[in-house]
Amino acid sequence: MAMETDLVVLGGGTGGYVAAIRAAQQGMAVVLIEQDKLGGTCLHRGCIPTKALLRSAEVIDTVRKAADFGIDQSNDPVVQYGKVLARKDRIVDQLHQGIQGLMKKNQIKVVYGKGAVLGPSIFSPVSGAVAVTFAEEGKEEEIYIPKKLIIATGSSPKTIPQFPIDEEHILTSNGMLELEELPESMAIIGGGVIGVEWASLLHSLGVAVTVIEALPCLVANESESISKELFRQLTDRGIQVKVDQQVEKVEIKAETVELSFKEQDAVIVDKVMVAIGRKPTVDGLGLQNTSVRFDKKGIQVNKHYQTAESHIYAIGDCIDTLQLAHVAMKEGELAVEHMVHGTSEPLAYENVPRCTYTSPEIASVGYTKEALPAGRKVKMGKFSFSGNGKALIQGEATGFVEVLRDAETDDLVGVSIIGPHATELISEMSTAIYLDATPLEVGEAIHPHPTLAEAIQEAALDTQKWAIHK
Question: Is the domain covering 360-462 a CATH 3.40.50.300 domain?
Answer without folding.
Answer: no
